[in-house]
Fold this protein.
Amino acid sequence: MTPAPVVISGLGLVTPAGVGVPANWDRVLAGRSTAVRPPQLAGLPVDFACVVPDFDADILLGRRKTWMLDRHAQFAVVAAREAVGDAGLDIADCDPNRVAVIIGTGAGGTITAETQHRKLLETGAARISALTLPMALPNMATAQVAIDLGAHGPSMSVATACASGATAIGLARDLLRFGVADVAVAGGTDAAVTPYFAAAFARMKALSTRRHNPAGASRPFDVERDGFVMAEGAGVVVLETEQHARGRGVRPRTHLLGYGASTDAYHATTPAPDGAGVERAMRTALAEAGLGSDDIGHVNAHGTSTPLNDVTEAAAVRRVLGRDTVITSTKGVTGHPLGAAGAIEAVYTVLALRHGLVPPTANVQAVEPAVDLDVVVDAPRKNQGTAAVSNSFGFGGHNTALVIAVT
C-alpha cells in the first residue's frame, strides 16, 4: 500500500503570545518575551512563567462547558475550534467515523488534581468534586475535543513529555497515510504553571533563576542561558489526506512530509550528550520526506534555553544539515509550554514557511560558541526554502522531528 500524502489544512493556537494564530504570529515576529509573575507562584524559588493572557473560558466556550473542563482541556478545545475553522471544515460534512483526534500532554489536568488534593487535606473527602477525575485524567483533552467536534474516529492521548504535541501530530499523520482516517485533529496542550510543577522543576535546577529579569530569562542558544521558563498553552492542526482535501475543493498549501521518532535510552532527564537520538529522528524524518540538507530553509529548534539541551541539539543539527543551517527557537518568546511545545512550534513552522519569514530567537545577546549554527536573532529573517524541520524532545529521552513543506 502506497502511503497517502498528508496536508496541514488548519491551524489553532492558545499560547502566552495570545489567543489565536494572528496574535501569536505578530508577537513571535516581534521577538518580545511573554514572561510575567503569576500570583500562584508568589513566594516560590522561581516565581515567574509565561501564561496565556486574557483567556476568558466563559466567553470562548460558554459557562456550561467551562466548569467541566480543566484549563488544559479548555485550551485544547479553543485551539481545535480555531484549527477546524481555519481549515474551512465542517465535521458534519465528513464521515465522523473517519475523523481522528490525537492530543498530547505532559501533565494532564494538574490544576484540577492539585486543587482537589488541597481540598481533600483541608476539608475532607466529602468536599472533593465529583468531576475531579473527568477533569484531571490525561486523556480528557482528547476526549473533550472529540466531544466538542463530534469526531467518532480513533482517538488517543500521547505522553512523551515535552515532545508530546509533536508526537501526536506524527502519529496522526500515520493514521491518515495508511487509510485509518481521512481527517485528524492533532496537537498538544498543557496548563501546568502551578506551585507543584514550579517547585519540582526548580528543585531539579531545570528553570532559569533570573528573577531580576523574567522577560530576559528564556534565552535559547545564548551563552548566559541558565534554564527554561515554564509556560502553558495549546497548539492544534487539522491534517487531511491530500485526496480528502482536494475532494472538498481545498488546494493544499502545506504538506507534512516527514516524521521521525527515537529514544535516547540514556537518562530520565538528561539528553544523551552525543545527540545521537536527535540525529536519528531528524534523519528518519528527512528520509521519509525525500529531502536533503539543501532543501531545508530553517529549523525551529526545541531550544529550551537549558545549558545541555541547546548544545546537544545544535551538534545533531550540524551533523545532519551542516554548519550553515538557519535555526531559531520561539521559546524565547513563549517560554516552554511542556507537552504543548512541539505542536505550537509546528504551527509556527507552518507560518514561517507560508509567510517567508523565520522568527527571531528572543533575548540572545551572544550566541554560545558551541552552538556554531546560523541563529536568527534581533529581527525576522527571510526564509530561503520551501521546507523546514521542527524538533521536539522530552524527559525520558523522547525525540521527535517533523518535516513540513509548502507548495
Summary: The first strand starts at residue 6 and ends at 15. The chain has 14 helices and 16 strands.
